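Fold this sequence, please.
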Amino acid sequence: MSEDNDSILIESAVKGDEPAFAELVKRYHAAVWSTVHRTLGNCSDAEDVVQEIFLRVLLSLNRFNPKYPFGPWILRIAGNYCIDQIRRKKTRKYRLWSDLSEGEQRRLLKNMATKPEAYPSDPEEASRYLEIAQILLDRLNPRHKAAFILRVIEGHSYLTVSEILDVPQSTARVRVSRARNDLHKAFIKYQADLNGGPEHE
C-alpha cells in the first residue's frame, strides 16, 4: 500500500471527496477490524465500532500530519476508541480467547507460565487452562491489555506499538511487561489453587 497514494487520497478527502475517503476506508478496514476484534473480542456491535472509528478518522483527517505514515495514525485512533469502550463497559464480558488460533493461545500461555511444561497435555485440563487464561486476559488494565495484544498476540514491533498507542517506546515496553507480569502472577496462583498447594514451593 503506497503512502504517496494515501497522501493524495487524504488531501482529496479533506476537500470533501467522498470516493477518496471511501478508498481509504477500503484500504484500512481490515487493519481497523483486526484491532477492534483483538481488543474487544467477538462483540455483536464490532462493525458499528469500526464505522464509528472511521467517522472519527474523517473528522480528524484535517489534523493528520502527512510527514508521518497514515497506518499507525489510524490504528492509534482505533486503539484509543477501543480502550474507551472497555473503560465505559467494565461489567461487560468481552469474548477474546476463543477467537485466537491454537498457536496464539500457546504463545500467550508461554508468557503466563514459568516453565514450558506447565502447558498441560491432557485436552480436558488444557481446556480449563484456556478458560482461565481468557478470564485473566480480560481483567487486565485496558491500556496494558491493548499493548500486550498488539505486541504478543499480533506480533507488532515495539516501535509500531508505540506509534499505534501514541506513547514512547519505553512506555509501550512497560505496559507489555506489566501485562505479562500480571498474567504470570495470576496464572501461577491459579496453578497453585488447581493443584491444591501453595503458590511457591
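Confidence is low (pLDDT under 50) at residues 91-95. The two ends are 53 Å apart (CA to CA).
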